[in-house]
Fold this sequence. Notes:
Layout lengths: L2 H9 L8 E2 L5 H9 L8 H4 L4 E5 L10 E5 L3 E5 L5 E5 L7 E2 L8 H7 L12 H13 L3 E7 L1 H9 L1 H10 L1 H24 L6 E5 L3 E2 L2 E2 L3 H7 L1 H13 L4 E4 L5 H10 L3 E3 L9 H8 L4 E3 L4 H4 L4 H16 L4 E3 L11 H20 L1
Helix pairs in contact: 6-7, 6-8, 7-8, 8-10, 10-11, 14-15
Amino acid sequence: xxxxxxxLAALRRQTTDRTARHEHFWPETADVWVEQGLPADTDLADxxxxxxxxxxxxxxxxGLPEEVLEETEDWEIRRDGNGVSKxxxxxxxxxxxxxGEFAVQNYQQWNEYKDRLLDPAGRLNLKETVxxxxxxxxxxxxxxxxxxxxxxxxxxxxxxxxxxxNVAMEPAWIREIxxxxxxxxKTMYEQFRQAGGYMDGLFFYEDLGYRNGMFMSPQxxxxxxxxxxCRTFGRVHEDNIPVIVHCCGRVHQAIDSLIEAGxxxxxxxxxKAGMDLGELKARYGDRLSxxxxxxxxxxRTNDKDAVxxxxxxxxxxxxxxxxxxxxxxxxxxxEVNLETYRFCLELVEExxxxxxxx
Length: 358
């Protein structure tokens, strides 16, 4: 099987020649691994045999002027395209910190800027993105178009506090923001496809939860976001393209609605937030493919016995009846040794060999 064939089979919950696999890495992980013997300038996806490759989506901001406001040796504060100032660390990656300056904090300000979200100009380098999508297609990879989801994009505009407060206080406003972001997606999707962009799948980044549960009630999700998810995933399905939803946190309460909306695969299944691959497989395995759940907190111990138990137990649970893609429960940090990650993939390969003999 090619990588494309393998991933498509996994997403359709069909038999594969080996376990499909993919991974995300923190940017500094490769630097640490070079010190541990990884060849310099290594493409980690190629080196570790990832079946999935992605091309970038579009600029989902309000398109306001960007500028650096303050800078030191360790960090810089930048105003982004939403008019939001954020602190970015230079020597390590992670979620940038909101510094408290926002262009949009009430409906009047939103009304001033909202039409900017309907303008597609300058949001996507079509020549470069379309060209890259064809290169990856020709390489036999499963190619995804990676885009920011509507809840996450709304958070980037308003900030988490204003967004969460107004889910309760001004839900009609939040619904309007989600609708504008969905309209932007539709415009950019049609533009990408009409320009000849190639994609086997949509990778939709939509963090609906945190460690203990969803950011909102299931009812609020159904009322404010779900209708836009339904239309968006439905449009992609019209082109026979499956939808992979990246949804961090403890999101059990959203799964049935996301499946109803058209989600084909859920990723990354955060073990540290209580997502259990075996339980999810038993409940949803006939309707949903699953990607992830290899607990990074276990991998970070670099204890081979613990890693062996984690990987082999998850492989047994995930590959029962197919429909599983091997992946961590988020991303591989630099605390995971290169030897440990190689050991993980050796376990996957040995599992596949034993499975093939049975």
